[in-house]
Design goal:
It comes from Anaerococcus nagyae. This is QueT transporter family protein. The structure is a single chain. By secondary structure, the chain is an all-alpha fold. The chain has a single domain (1-166), classed as Arp2/3 complex 21 kDa subunit ARPC3 (Orthogonal Bundle), CATH 1.10.1760. Helices cover 75% and strands 0% of the residues. Helix 1 packs parallel to helix 3 and helix 3 (59-70) packs antiparallel against helix 4. It is globular. The two termini are 23 Å apart.
């Protein structure tokens, strides 16, 4: 009986933890006074994506948070489907590397997927190139610079890292 109760407690903790991560991602996207949608996006919430590098169990919460945040996009269906899917693919690719900076590049590369879709919809090559590079540059700044520096600092916090690894 104790084994079943312990499993239930662990499952419940994971479910609640994933919901908290999803809510945190969505709220940070929606309340920060920065561009969150469109060709230039500085989603402060994107810092959280590097949690996947340390523990793949963060994937469901981050995917759900991304989907919730994308519900508020001006291109809701497009961002909901392609933006969320590209985040999921980036997370799965992040699992395959043991280098933090390399892991940070997958979200930068995958952000081009919605940009390519936008190109197909708009059929405007000049706007596409500009949009692609602005998407990638803003994602690079948030994830590969700010998030990498943040997590390098957090790696020194043994309590935080223990929690992340045991999530």
């Amino acid at each position: 009986m104790n084994k079943d109760k312990s499993k239930l407690t662990n499952d419940t903790r994971y479910l609640v933890g994933s919901a908290v991560v999803a809510a945190l991602y969505a709220v940070l996207t929606l309340v920060m006074p920065m561009p969150q949608y469109g060709p230039i996006q500085f989603r402060f919430s994107e810092i959280l994506v590097l949690l996947v590098f340390y523990n793949k169990r963060f994937i469901p919460g981050l995917v759900l948070g991304c989907a919730i945040a994308n519900l508020f996009s001006p291109m809701v269906w497009f961002d909901l489907i392609f933006g969320t899917l590209s985040s999921y693919v980036a997370f799965k690719l992040m699992e395959k590397t043991d280098k933090l900076f390399i892991a940070s590049l997958f979200p930068v590369l995958m952000v081009s997927v919605p940009a390519i879709g936008t190109y197909i919809i708009l059929d405007n090559t000049g706007a596409f190139i500009t949009m692609l590079f602005s998407f990638m540059a803003s994602e690079f700044i948030m994830v590969s610079i700010i998030a990498v520096i943040t997590f390098k600092i957090l790696e020194d916090n043994k309590g935080f890292m223990k929690y992340i690894k045991e999530f």
